[in-house]
Design goal:
There is one protein chain. The chain is mainly alpha-helical. It is 83% helix and 0% strand. The protein has 6 helices and no strands.
Length: 106
């Protein structure tokens, strides 16, 4: 049973990694698909850190590809990423908060 759980977790991590691969290339459709698959996998496993990373990837996808308005909208809609990062004590919590603070006037 533990082995099946580990396999699903490994698969979700792989989806996130593929999302970031596509993100670097600004292939947003593919990146979004990978991040959403990863998010679904992490949600099914109750992996809060993995969920936060998936939300973060989705927002970064827009930020890095010069669509700051979409990134802000997603961050605001997905404040879940920030709360999840804070909950698990992840180092990205500060970066997400800085991003939201920096663009809060938009």
């Amino acid at each position: 049973m533990a082995e099946a759980h580990q396999d699903r977790e490994t698969e979700a991590v792989a989806w996130n990694n593929l999302g970031f691969k596509y993100l670097i290339r600004c292939e947003t459709e593919q990146a979004e698909e990978m991040f959403r698959k990863a998010l679904a996998g992490h949600e099914a496993l109750g992996n809060k850190e993995g969920m936060a990373i998936s939300y973060h990837g989705l927002a970064n996808m827009y930020e890095f590809c010069d669509d700051v308005e979409q990134a802000i909208a997603l961050w605001k809609k997905r404040k879940k990423s920030l709360s999840l990062y804070k909950e698990v004590g992840h180092l990205h919590a500060e970066r997400v908060q800085q991003f939201l603070d920096e663009y809060s006037e938009l």
